[in-house]
Amino acid sequence: MVQHNAKIDRSQKGKVILKLILQTDILEIILTEDKPNEIKTVFNKLILHLKNGLFSFNLEDSNEDLYHYVCKEYIKQLNTDINSTYKELESNDLLNQPENTSV
């Protein structure tokens, strides 16, 4: 299983963002705004990435503030959901097939 990082970006005044860092994509969830359609878009992109193989996130954050603890629990639940969604995709034969590299 591939391990990806998640970071909390507090650098923008009044805006805190949870960044889910994938190999080819950085997905952002703005924690200080209520935008459910943007969150749906992030989850749809996660499912597309998940079709290529199972992964999980590890929170990299040294500030022990409220955002740290909320994101820690969020990532824990997200990893559980990713695992169960992957199993469902697998059981329904919806995973992308690896390209055959043999000649």
Keywords:
single chain; 103 residues; alpha+beta; 4-stranded mixed sheet; 2 helices; 40% helix; elongated
What can you tell me about this protein's structure?
The chain contains two helices and four strands, in the order βββαβα. With 103 residues, it is of the alpha+beta class. The chain has one domain. A four-stranded mixed sheet has the order 3-2-1-4. The protein is elongated, with a radius of gyration of 15 Å. The model has no long low-confidence stretch (mean pLDDT 94).
Number of strands: 4
How much of the sequence is in beta strands?
25-35%
**Main sheet properties:** 4 strands, mixed
Describe the strand arrangement of the main beta sheet, using strand numbers: 3-2-1-4
Number of structurally distinct domains: 1
> How are helices and strands ordered from N to C?
EEEHEH
Poorly predicted sequence stretches spanning 5 or more consecutive residues: none
Query: What is the CA-CA span between the terminal residues?
Result: 27 Å
> What structural category characterises the helix and strand content?
alpha+beta
How many helix segments? 2
Rg is 15 Å
Mean pLDDT score: 94
Task: Determine the fraction of residues in helical runs and give it as a percent range.
Answer: 25-40%
Shape descriptor: elongated
